[in-house]
Specification:
Blueprint: H1 3-22, H2 42-64, H3 70-103, E1 107-112, E2 119-123, H4 130-156
Helix pairs in contact: 2-3, 2-4, 3-4
Amino acid sequence: MNNSFKIFCLLLLIPFSSFAQNHTDSTFHRHYEIGIAPSCDLDNVSRNSLTTFKVVQDIFSRGIQPKLPEKVGNILGGVWSFSFTYLFMIWPHEFGHSMRANQVGGQFKIHNVALPFPYTTMHLPDEASFQDRALSVIGGFEINYLTSRRIQDDFYE
């Protein structure tokens, strides 16, 4: 690689490095969004569960943790964060199955809420088509996708 190419590459990076240095905003920003939508709107479930998760995390990190001794606060913060992250990912997923099962005339039952996995069953009508059965199964994964996409959007924001 010749020296002129190296210099050219470095010159291309200068505007980006100065932009990053001059436009860094370290203030805390949180966007909360609650929606009311039709009964089969999985995006609404994703949005509301993620907002509730943000509120729960902010209550701890802004209200509870600063009042605790640093070591205890950090340990409890890790447990709190892991627990609520897990719960706010698994329950919207299960709710997605429930919404899609109801949409095709079926029933989704939650038998217990035991960790690490809840015990659930889905009962679909005998006349449910293959597409109806597939829709009720993928409902949970639709919520997972919508939530991960929303988290990525928040991160880039």
